Amino acid sequence: xxxxxxxxxxxxxxxxxxxxxxxxxxxxxxxxxxxxxxxxxxxxxxxxxxxxxxxxxxxxxxxxxxxxxxxxxxxxxxxxxxxxxxxxxxxxxxxxxxxxxxxxxxxxxxxxxxxxxxxxxxxxxxxxxxxxxxxxxxxxxxxxxxxxxxxxxxxxxxxxxxxxxxxxxxxxxxxxxxxxxxxxxxxxxxxxxxxxxxxxxxxxxxxxxxxxxxxxxxxxxxxxxxxxxxxxxxxxxxxxxx
Length: 242
What we know:
Rossmann fold, six-stranded antiparallel beta sheet
């Protein structure tokens, strides 16, 4: 474990604009360690005067990719680290990190119970690692993603999610738009609630494994909603921010 928590210098090889407020950074990691979907890395910035700022970011890539990781970072206007990554970093720059870290909010393909993923905003990031791992491992267990976003322009990984949904044994993917829905939209257009969860989780049966990630209020509401429809607390794992 000690080696995983040692700081090292990674090189940015690709930067991809996911949405107006989110970018994915591909980093070549010299002391790469296979991660579990749901884990994160710490990023540390050090100013010339010695001042340091540190933040944790979930891994978006699947563990089947070796030697590099993807971190998807949403720009927070007053965020010291996210604004630096969005506004300053370019391909070829180096950044200090350590990881992978975390052992509770993780899913691997040998966990065969039906999988329910609930994400809010950039809470999709660790869930995307799980979906990418599921596809790479050829898992055929039932899987459902419920993704809550403000508007269509806020959907991170939109093209890839569409591809995953249409792939053989792909997951069911359901969106709910909380502020602005697409023109002609006939799906959900509200915050996650008990009725929505009952409709989404019901087909997965009683033995589903749920992972919820997003803003604190959304995570708490979704977790409580699952409890109310009969999902056991032992089958619900949460990760929150904000």
